[in-house]
Amino acid sequence: MFSHTHTGVTDFERAFAFYSVVLKELGLVLRFREDDEVANIHWAGWQTPDVARPLFLIGKPFDKAAHQVGNGQMVAFLAASRAQVRRVYETALANGGTCEGAPGLRPHYHANYYGAYFRDTEGNKVCVAYHDAE
User: Fold this and answer.
1) Cα 29 to Cα 3, 12, 37, 85, distances in angstroms
2) Residue 85 maps to a domain
3) What's the domain range around 95?
4) Residue 68 falls inside a structural domain
5) Cα separations (Å) of 83 from 64, 79, 80, 100?
6) Domains of the chain: total
7) Could you read off the pLDDT of 34-49 as tens digits, one per residue?
8) CATH number where 107 lies
9) Does the CA dihedral 9-15-16-22 come out positive or negative?
10) What tens digit of pLDDT does each residue of 54-106 get?
11) Do residues 18 and 95 lie in contact, with contact meaning Cβ atoms separated by under 8 Å?
């Protein structure tokens, strides 16, 4: 469905360090990182191993304006198990993320929805969800 999604950040190094460990826990690998000091471009992208798309990208906003957290925007990653949801959430909190909802069933979405919610180091909301029974 998606080609890629981009999440804006202000402190690229801090966000890169955060997502490097969180996305590794999800099994994603770094596809690229570009740092161009002259053009003030800093961005990076991760992907599922051996799959070109979709990409998850972080970087400073293209228009060079300050990053601002959106109200209602959230990136949700698909986990392979409930245990992985818990590991990703714990990794996020251990690396500067903040809790927006501990891992657990959310039957108001559907009977098997198991998710966790957190904010990254920039305040962006992130979800990790698993949709099957265990």
Assistant:
1) 16, 18, 24, 17
2) yes
3) 4-62+73-130
4) no
5) 39, 9, 8, 18
6) 1
7) 998 777 789 999 999 9
8) 3.10.180.10
9) negative
10) 999 999 888 878 888 888 899 999 999 999 999 999 999 999 999 999 999 99
11) yes
Please state the pTM of the whole predicted model: 0.92
Please report, for residues 5, 39, 117, 134, the alpha-carbon distance to residue 75 in angstroms, rounded to integers and kept in the order given.
8, 27, 10, 24
Q: Can you tell me which residue has the tokens 């002259």?
A: 38
Site of tokens 């909802």? 101
CA separation for the pair 67, 59 (Å, rounded) = 9
* 67 falls within a domain: no
Burial class (CB in 10 A: 0-12, 13-18, 19+), 73: exposed
What does the alpha-carbon distance between residue 130 and residue 113 come to, in Å, rounded to a whole number? Answer: 6
C-alpha distances in Å from residue 113, one per residue of 21, 82, 107, 132, 134: 24, 10, 6, 7, 11
pLDDT on residue 126: 97
- In a domain, residue 117? The reply is yes
8 Å CB contact between 77 and 126 = yes
User: What is the mean pLDDT of the segment spanning 14-32?
Assistant: 98
